């Protein structure tokens, strides 16, 4: 904890009268952060604002957790600000919850004219994030995980625990008798991060207990190289990407390494801290769109973004999903507008129409879920030729209202690979065959 304290007092140079906003959930990490800030407040009289978000997911103890954090703030002369998320509507719960959290935190920062927003991300979080992005694919900056300091213009995000382990924070809480809450969903194997946390990170720590420091060094080196390449990219951006529109003629003059970095540069600026949503696949899709012989074409990207090519121009347009028509990229978990879900699984014994196994040898990833379109046909598993989606709806006695909302899973070539709950395509694999992804509809 001394490293975190020295970072704030010596490196950042927090001083008398500064206002800090702390993002506090009530878990062990954020309660350690709040306790440390309470101590600093007593020493130099800074203003500390605690920003708490109740995710309102139905998990037992969430209200109790909120009340405890509020009481801790009252006892330590800290301002408490709380927000309850009333409803969710995105296709990706974790992404939407994160977006709502940070929007709220920024709102609190503005309200109190704070200089800093502090989060309790620690060394183990950094390891998990880097491993997840290495496994899934990302940008150069994405592979670095997250930064210790992020300049947001009118305030900075600080992560003072980035060189401290989770266990050190738990030990700190125990030593100072700080009560905290455990979110049981953090123990479930269904989430990718949890699997890295439970099974991979402990093995790395067996090799070197201080492995988090190696990952931090790796992160800082990547950021340093990324900053250097960014300088080269920024020199060409005014010509290649004026007014947020890509000039394809100028783009084609670039060396491949700079050209790809221009794509990553654009994605990084669009997605910022949501880079977990972006993979190498997305950059490749954009590059292929640029190199395509078709003068007019488009692709879909996460967060309702659409990359549209119009002759010599390429622009990125936000197209919010509505209830009558939607198109969503398959990431880990999708909450569909019809109230159902599609989830990516590691394994399953199911073989019915509510499960689908696919191979990247046969279909082009990433996959998307959309509503039906005129002329939609599917090559049904076990049948010659193809069948109209509309005919399947009629055969299965699906109502008109349900048909308009029924999910259709397609690959990046817009080939239908699954009609969830109704029909499998010829691309579906048996349990004994090779496949890269398992999808479940429920």
List the helices and strands and how they pair.
Layout: H1 2-11, E1 19-23, H2 28-44, E2 47-54, H3 62-75, E3 79-84, H4 93-112, E4 116-118, H5 123-136, H6 140-143, E5 149-151, E6 156-158, H7 166-175, H8 192-207, H9 211-240, E7 245-247, H10 248-251, H11 256-271, H12 280-291, E8 296-301, E9 305-310, E10 313-318, E11 327-329, E12 333-335, E13 341-345, E14 355-358, E15 368-370, E16 377-378, E17 387-388, H13 389-395, H14 400-405, E18 408-410, E19 416-419, E20 423-424, E21 437-441
Parallel strand pairs: 1-2, 1-4, 2-3, 4-6
Antiparallel strand pairs: 5-6, 7-10, 8-9, 9-10, 11-15, 12-13, 13-21, 14-21, 15-18, 16-17, 18-19, 19-20
In terms of per-residue confidence, which ranges show pLDDT below 50 for 5 or more consecutive residues? Answer: none
Distance between the termini: 45 Å
What percent of residues are in strands? 15-25%
Beta strand count: 21
Structural class per helix/strand content?
alpha+beta
Describe the protein.
The structure is a single chain. With 442 residues, this protein is an alpha+beta fold. It folds into three domains: 2-121 and 159-207, HUPs (Rossmann fold, 3-Layer(aba) Sandwich), CATH 3.40.50; 215-318, 2-Layer Sandwich (Uridine Diphospho-n-acetylenolpyruvylglucosamine Reductase, domain 3); 327-441, Phenylalanyl-trna Synthetase, Chain B, domain 3 (Phenylalanyl-tRNA Synthetase, Chain B, domain 3), CATH 3.50.40. It contains 14 helices and 21 strands. It has a six-stranded mixed β-sheet with strand order 3-2-1-4-6-5, with helices on both faces. It is globular, with a radius of gyration of 24 Å. The mean pLDDT is 89.
